[in-house]
Amino acid sequence: MVYSYYPGCTLKTKAKDLDRYAKECAKALGFELEEIENWQCCGGVYPLGTDEIASKLSSVRALNEAKVKGQDLVTVCSACHHVIKRTNDDMKNVEDIRTRANNYMELEEPYAGETTVLHYLEVLRDRVGFDVLKEKVVKPLGRKIGAYYGCLLLRPSKIVQFDNPENPTIIEDFIKAIGGEPVIYPYRNECCGGYVSLKEKEMAGKMVDRIMDSAAGMGAEELITACPLCMYNLNKSESANKLPVYYFTELLAEALGLKEEV
Amino acid sequence: MSGHLHEDMKSRVIDISGASPHKCMKCGKCSASCPSFDEMDIKPHQFVSYVNNGDIEALMASKSLGKCLSCFACVERCPRDVKPGKIVDAARQMLIRQQGQAMLTPEDVPELLDPEVPQQLLMSAFRRYSR
Amino acid sequence: MQRVGVFVCHCGSNIAATVDVKKVVEMVSLEPGVVHAEDYQYMCSEAGQARIDAAIKEKGLTGIVVCSCSPRMHEATFRKAAERAGLNPYMVEIANIREHCSWIHKDMEEATKKAVVLARAAIAKVNLNAPLQPGESLVTKRALVIGGGIAGIQTAIDIADAGYEVDIVEKTPSIGGRMSQLDKTFPTLDCSACILTPKMVEAAAHEKITIYTYSEVDKVTGFVGDFTVDIRKKARSIDMNKCTGCGVCQEKCPSKKTPSEFNRGLNTRSAIYTPFAQAIPNVPVIDRDACIKFKTGKCGICEKVCQAGAIDYEQKDEIVTQKYGAIVVATGFDVIKVDQYEEYAYSQSKDVITSLELERIMNAAGPTKGHLERLSDGKHPKEMVFIQCVGSRCSDDKGKSYCSKICCMYTAKHAMLIRDKYPDVNVTVFYIDVRTPGKNFDEFYRRAVEDYGVNYIKGQVGKVAPQPDGSLLVQGVDLIDNKQILKKADMVVLAAAIEPEKDVRRIATMLTASIDTNNFLTESHAKLRPVESPTAGVFLSGVCQGPKDIPETVAQAGAAAVKAIGLLAKDKLLTNPCTAKADELMCNGCSTCANVCPYGAITYETKEINDHGIRETRRVASVNNALCQGCGACTVACPSGAMDLQGFSNRQILAEVDAICR
Q: CATH classification of A2-120 is 2.60.120.200, yes or no?
């Protein structure tokens, strides 16, 4: 199975690990990520006003590219996923945005939300299957791992339709599949400080400390995330309980025995 | 400021945000959910009341605009589908679209940087805080 | 040609403020057949009816049109008035110029024009009306009550006390319903079981009441006064006549892992069980999904230990068919699933519970024998937090739009009982509004605050976070102080919204009773006929109609009983003469009408027809007037135009349309 792949800006720079482990593991699991040519940055944040069109166009281009190729579009970064998925929903369901975006784009055939957007974790769950993944694991991790979801993957749940926004299970199921022991802690779906960490470092610090304390208190030995921004913020924690944080793809590679090769 | 302009700004906030402030029943679940509550001068539930009262200028002057995380906990948990977080976003948009009102300029960046800052943080910060 | 009189009602200012009634009188006077027209302030009043009476007699009217409110409101009133004046009641037509006109328009000129048009249509129709005579049907003097909670029990007792036979059908193994799960009742704090069990016993002992437990209504046919109902008595696997209720089988049953429905899954029960000690009947059932004998063929311990020889593994479902004159729906409620509000961590912590679960914990016969303790570790809590409106008053797609009505009061009750019994426990209630309309209700809530020191905080909770030490961190807001609150609690209690019992939709469909978007049964008139379904002969008792507390439920149960008794007291009912009729000369016996008839009212007979002098034998449709409800489905389905509805013939309808389009 070949998927269109949208890596996003950070996976090409600060989060190269997230990207290359994703691609290598895909091969081992029998699917391929075909990077969209000339993709443009999603903007990192879903446009904040309903009247903004231009800032949605890079997402629409990527979505249309996948549509032309007849492929589903796979993302790894939480922010890219959030922005592209929500833009796709707009193109499908909001007539005004669809019309105006298509007027800008001048595509051969107007784009109307036809592409299916999948997060890499959804590919693992729904296309590969966690049970199949489990069979391919050569090095079960055996560690206590806390899933850190953050906000972008889960909310608004009606549109991103990723998992139960208040009690998600997909990353926990993933952890089980790679032989780890998932640790449930209540702040796994609370914001890491996200976008404000550039200007409000102290405030973001408090938020990640709370996450670390909660996860460590519940017995986690490490955290995994799908988001480079979460990674950055979590690593800024100055809590005495600070845990190491990994991208989920890195642990996937480790469990599949690919980590050293990559 | 004339009443007419008040109404105009109110309807602009509602349009840009896509929020439904009139549906609010003042339960406070947004403020109960907000991770930035203590940092805010105008609290999430008050954002809704300010819009209903047409006092948009006060919102645009609020320091809460820089404290909201857009994490959507308030939007997700609101039992009335009011979407308070989107009102904050819209008020910030109305502010920074004005000449000279950017909350972040390229000159500010060097001192905020550290070697680990991911690209998406800079991207999104500019999206949020400047035109 | 008819001699038509038109009566235009002002309805105070309801109509007259928007419709120029004088103008309507002037305009309709010009219509063909109209020999009299007048307006009056309240046509439905005694004086108004006297005017109709006088006009009929003085002007020799053969038909009348009343321009007034909806026929649902006063058609019967005006038909009776006409009848008293010697006119056939089916020579009365109503032009609805209130709901269809004055209430929905603002512009007087436009509204007046429309009122004239509506009146014209009615005049055109009445010109073609013919006198109709209602038939009669017999009333079966027996009532069915669906649901054996306090609503059903009270209704059944009241009907039975009036001397009529009543059957209660209850789907669980015992009557008693939700009330049997409660500990104490507000606002007097009397023990629920102490006031309910005597009622249960009274119903069971009543010579006029038959109780079918572990039974469901399978099928309903017929109509008001003459329903036929199939009741499925599910196989209990126990011979009810032999069982002595000794309970040994339940003690010895080795399969004890099934979550107890009665205790809301807080503990388990055996596969052979009675839901609670005071169950009526005190005869267990075997849960065949849990029973080892049914699953593997081995075991049979209950049979061995039963001294009475009452165990019967071969028992099968049994269908009892019974006729009823009236049916009362009393299917009650359940609480919503709160795991859709996982910000409150219900499925992540055993110490987050619903209020109904707390009832079981507080109950001496419950899983903790009435001791207030955490379900996670059995420890006595020191801090308890109650969260109101969980799933009520929501306009999102998860919750209920309505206020569940009972939560404010039962939460005050819980808070007070806990503070009374365990003064060391601090109780905090997060609320949006405290709603206490009811006799001695607000005083009750204030006692919780003033005498028992319950801490009420205005504001909702956003998140309940289970902590590493086993406590729960409640993150809420105090809207009065404008502060976010972080409160450590040992237990959190959710006031979950209530919703109609799931089965009600199936039952409503069988009864052709209407149901609203929240699955509450619709009453015939929200104010004036609150216990009657729009379907004749079907009455509503308890929460199936809308959220209610116990006193309201009992009051409504009595009201439903009175309405049912009023029906059963009649020997005969007049049937609606506006039924379908087949023109035998036009009918070609194609069966289309019988296929669309929802009431099974159409049959076919083969008979000799004289078609303009030609005698031949044909298969033609025949309508049973007792079954036909006059819905008209057959008249539009009939390909040859042979079916017509008396009182609403195709000619009459088209005359109305012509009058409107004129």
A: no
Residue ranges of the domains in chain B?
3-98, 103-131
> Given this structure, which CATH class describes domain C142-234+317-332+501-568?
alpha beta
A55 touches C: beta carbon within 8 Å:
no
Let me know how long chain A is. Answer: 262
ipTM for the predicted complex comes to: 0.95
Q: Which range is least confidently modeled, A10-14, B29-33, B71-75?
A: A10-14
For domain C580-646, the CATH architecture is: 2-Layer Sandwich (3.30)
Cβ–Cβ of B37/C477 closer than 8 Å?
yes
pLDDT digits 0-9 by tens, C602-654: 999 998 888 888 888 999 999 988 778 898 999 999 999 999 999 999 999 99
Asked whether the beta carbons of residue B29 and residue C461 sit closer than 8 angstroms, the reply is yes
Strands C184-185 and C215-223: unpaired
A218: closest CA of chain C, how far (Å) = 5
Report the distance separating Cα A12 and Cα A18, nearest Å.
Answer: 9
Q: Does B61 touch chain A (CB under 8 A)?
A: no
- Structure confidence at residue A39 as a pLDDT band (50, 70, 90): very high
Backbone angles phi, psi at C465, to 5 degrees: -110, 110
Where along chain C do its domains lie?
4-126, 142-234+317-332+501-568, 248-305, 334-499, 580-646
- Looking at the DSSP bridge assignments, the partners of residue C529 are C525
Residues contacting residue C220 through CB under 8 Å, at least 6 positions apart: C227, C228, C229, C230, C327, C510, C511
Domain-wise residue ranges, chain A: 2-120, 129-255
The 3-class SS string of chain B reads: CCHHHHHHHHHHHHHHHCCCHHHCCCCCHHHHHCCCHHHCCCCHHHHHHHHHHCCHHHHHCCHHHHCCCCCCHHHHHCCCCCCHHHHHHHHHHHHHCCCCCCCCCHHHHHHHCCCCCCHHHHHHHHHHHCC
Question: Letter for the amino acid at C322?
Answer: Q
The CATH number corresponding to B3-98 among 3.40.109.40, 3.30.360.10, 1.10.1060.10, 3.40.50.150 equals 1.10.1060.10
Fold category of A129-255 in CATH = Rossmann fold (3.40.50)
Is the CB of residue C530 less than 8 Å away from at least one CB of chain A?
Answer: no
Q: Is the dihedral of CA C587, C589, C590, C596 positive or negative?
A: positive
With an 8 Å Cβ cutoff, is A138 touching chain B?
Answer: no
User: How far, in Å, CA of B18 to CA of C484, rounded?
Assistant: 26
Q: For domain C4-126, give the CATH number.
A: 3.40.50
Indicate the residue of B30, B32, B46 with minimum beta-carbon distance to C475: B32
- CATH topology identical between C4-126 and C334-499: no
Mean pLDDT (chain C, rounded):
96
Interface membership of C481 toward B (CB under 8 Å) = no
